[in-house]
Design goal:
This protein has helices spanning 10-41, 47-51, 54-60, 69-91, 201-218, 224-258, 269-272, 279-285, 287-301, 344-360, and strands at 2-7, 109-112, 117-119, 124-127, 131-135, 144-152, 158-165, 177-182, 186-190, 195-197, 261-265, 304-308, 332-334, 341-343. By secondary structure, it is of the alpha+beta class. The chain has two domains: 2-165, no CATH class; 177-360, Nucleotidyltransferase, domain 5. It has a seven-stranded antiparallel sheet. It has a five-stranded mixed sheet with strand order 10-9-8-11-12. In the C-terminal section; belongs to the transposase 35 family. In the N-terminal section; belongs to the transposase 2 family. Residues 2-43 form the Transposase putative helix-turn-helix domain. Keywords: DNA recombination, DNA-binding, Metal-binding, Transposition, Zinc.
């Protein structure tokens, strides 16, 4: 996926917003069709049944003709995927989450799935029914471009994303092995002894965010001033997101470039943020994004990525396997059996590496962290 910032003119912005509005209307219409069909006839409409109604819809609503046909077809695909995910969650016994109608300004992207777009030689993107839009082409898109998605950010900025089909770029083989223990005091501790400091981007921006939110709360609801000031609040959140993404991308790239086998904790972050005392700090640390990027980069580079059960990795000696209770306030692991003294997180990262290697069948020297009781 390659994403670029685009700078449409005022006329093009108007066309882009009109396209989003037509897609939003169609999305709600197709959702209403499915809902009504099931309630009245007990049948669920298919993707192709809904797409077959588009010619008649264009006669009833001529403004749909101003949108590329494949963009409209993609709206039906999104509805179909939403219902497939809904039924999958029901089958799995999860909370269903029925697809919802999209309110004003709640539909912020549309996709050209096959055609209707092109990149010109002067680094502009040509969009059917919209025009040639200036694009900051900061790096070449590798591979064959398949789809093009136009996205409107909450700050009013516009972006274009291209999904491509390409061969993975394998890195040279590396014999280094690393275990990674994530935390709040230190973002990550590697089994090599290296530590990655926790930048705490949200904590650093809390005062700025509180200031703009206080001003926003004093503005009259529904007024143009409040609607305009919403972008100021969104800009602070966007700044936090950009810094956090840059941090996780850089560190995940560094680890993949210098390690052949990467062992991490298989954390359930969604459950961990139920702890109200630590929820904000855990969300700010963005462990899920870090692990996701690490996994994707490792797969593309041909590295081995292993996620292990983190239970007792902080309470077990990485040298002899002795287990003892360790309150969070105790930051040094002092083993009474082999008398080794290690930083708590470093000890955990060594255990994570040993468990990962044991799972791969490369080593049987992992400490007995899961003995039968």
């Amino acid at each position: 996926m390659f994403q670029y910032r685009i700078y449409p003119t005022k006329k093009q912005i108007k066309k882009l917003n009109e396209t989003l509005e037509e897609c939003r209307w169609l999305y709600n219409h197709l959702l209403e069709q499915r809902k009504t069909s099931y309630e009245q006839e007990g049948k669920s409409l298919s993707l192709y049944q809904q797409q077959d109604t588009f010619p008649a819809l264009k006669q009833e609503r001529p403004s749909l003709k101003q949108v590329h046909s494949q963009v409209l077809q993609n709206v039906a695909v999104r509805i179909d995927l939403a219902f497939k995910a809904f039924f999958r969650r029901i089958k799995a016994g999860e909370e269903p989450g029925y697809p919802r109608f999209r309110g004003a300004h709640r539909y912020d992207s549309f996709t050209f799935p096959q055609s209707g777009f092109s990149i010109t030689r002067d680094d502009r993107v040509c969009l059917s029914k919209i025009g040639s839009v200036k694009m900051v082409y900061h790096r070449l898109a590798k591979g064959t471009i398949k789809t093009c998605t136009i996205h409107r950010a909450s700050t009013g900025k516009w972006y274009v994303s291209f999904s491509v089909e390409c061969e993975p770029e394998r890195l040279p083989e590396c014999a280094e092995q690393v275990g990674i223990d994530v935390g709040l005091k230190t973002f990550a501790t590697l089994s090599t002894g290296e530590e990655i400091e926790n930048p705490k981007f949200f904590r650093k921006e809390e005062k700025a965010l509180a200031k703009v939110q206080r001003k926003h709360s004093k503005l009259v609801k529904g007024s143009p001033e409040r609607r305009k000031h919403r972008k100021v609040v969104a800009r602070v959140h966007e700044r936090i997101k950009f810094r956090r993404d840059n941090f996780t991308h850089q560190n995940s790239h560094h680890i993949v470039a210098h390690s052949g086998i990467i062992c991490v904790e298989d954390l359930r972050v969604n459950r961990m943020i139920h702890n109200h005392c630590l929820a904000k700090s855990i969300a700010d640390a963005s462990w899920s994004a870090f692990f996701s990027q690490l996994s994707c980069k490792a797969e593309e580079a041909g590295r081995t990525y292993v996620a292990v059960n983190p239970a007792y990795t902080s309470q077990t000696c990485s040298q002899c396997g002795h287990r003892q209770k360790m309150p969070l306030s105790v930051r040094v692991f002092d083993c009474p059996c082999c008398h080794v003294q290690l930083d708590r997180d470093l000890n955990a990262s060594k255990n994570i590496l040993a468990l990962g290697l044991q799972g791969l069948g490369l080593s049987l020297e992992a400490p007995a962290i899961y003995p039968g009781e």
